């Protein structure tokens, strides 16, 4: 069964919610990496940010399903 979230009668796909959560996490992680100076050593920042987002999305989905009941 496909997971959905009920937001005041509007059903949102589970993946959409996890993607929004991951975007917020990636925003703060990206700011931390920029402050630490890591981006000076990265060849293509956009590709690095995309890869970081995909890894973080995988972690968020894995953690959410690890703590789900049923």
Automatic annotation (TrEMBL):
One Pfam assignment: DUF1656
Keyword terms, alphabetized: Cell membrane, Membrane, Transmembrane, Transmembrane helix
Transmembrane segments: 15-34, 46-67
InterPro entries to which the protein is assigned, alphabetical: DUF1656
UniProt-recorded name of the protein: DUF1656 domain-containing protein
């Amino acid at each position: 069964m496909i997971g959905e979230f009920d937001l005041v009668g509007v059903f949102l796909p589970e993946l959409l919610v996890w993607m929004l959560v991951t975007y917020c996490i990636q925003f703060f992680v990206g700011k931390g990496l920029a402050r630490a100076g890591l981006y000076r050593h990265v060849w293509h920042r956009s590709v690095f940010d995309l890869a970081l987002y995909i890894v973080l999305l995988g972690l968020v989905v894995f953690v959410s399903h690890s703590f789900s009941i049923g």
